[in-house]
Each structure stands twice: as C-alpha cells, then as structure tokens.
C-alpha cells in the first residue's frame, strides 16, 4: 500500500474507501463485522482494564458504520452530541 500524501487530507481515505467498495459485498460485510466486533469487544474489556476503552469502542462503531445502517446512525448521533458539547466551550 502506498504511503499517504501528506499534502492531501482525504486522499488516502478516498483510496481506502474505493478499495473497500471494490470487494465482494458478502465478504466485505463479514470482514467489517468481524473487525468491528473485535474492536467493540476489546473496547469493552478496556473499560475495566487499563486502556482507552471508550476510544476503541468508538473506533469499532466507526468500522461497523461502513456496512451497517444502525452503526451509521449511531455515528451521526455521536457527532451531533460532540458538536453540541464543543459549542458550549
């Protein structure tokens, strides 16, 4: 995989998204579910173990939002909450 161009903010994200969409839909959905599920489980374990549990859980939900509508709605809801909190400060 090529090193992302530091001059473009979204160049590597767009390439990763294009690669993601080229894969077979069933394989893509299973792989996303496995990776997202592992991140959710690891994040849940990190809530009681030392580590950034909430950050890992949010990463898992972000991965799941690539393929699952419910996770996409959850990400949008979290973004709205973040913007409301940020606007207060």
What does this structure look like?
The protein has 89 residues and is mainly α. The chain has one domain (26-88). It has 4 helices and no strands. It has helices spanning 11-22, 25-48, 53-64, 69-88. The longest helix is centred in the middle third of the chain and has 24 residues, at 25-48. The model has no long low-confidence stretch (mean pLDDT 85).
Rounded mean pLDDT score: 85
Beta fraction of the residues?
A: under 5%
Number of helices: 4
Identify low-pLDDT runs: none
Q: Work out the count of structural domains.
A: 1
Total number of beta strands? 0
Radius of gyration, Cα only, in angstroms?
Answer: 15 Å
- Structural class estimated from helices and strands: mainly alpha
Main sheet summary: none
Distance between the termini: 40 Å
> Helices and strands, in N-to-C order?
HHHH
Shape: globular
Q: Helical percent range? A: over 70%
Record keyword descriptors for this entry.
single chain; 89 residues; mainly alpha; 4 helices; 0% strand; globular
Summarize the topology.
Blueprint: H1 11-22, H2 25-48, H3 53-64, H4 69-88
Helix pairs in contact: 2-3, 3-4
Summary, kept brief:
The chain is an all-alpha fold.
């Amino acid at each position: 995989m090529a090193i992302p161009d530091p001059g473009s903010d979204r160049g590597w994200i767009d390439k990763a998204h294009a690669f993601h969409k080229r894969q077979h839909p069933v394989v893509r959905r299973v792989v996303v579910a496995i990776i997202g599920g592992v991140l959710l489980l690891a994040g849940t374990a990190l809530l009681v173990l030392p580590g950034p549990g909430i950050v890992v859980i949010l990463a898992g939900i972000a991965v799941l939002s690539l393929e699952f509508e419910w996770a996409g709605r959850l990400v949008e809801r979290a973004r709205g909450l973040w913007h409301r909190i940020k606007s207060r400060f």
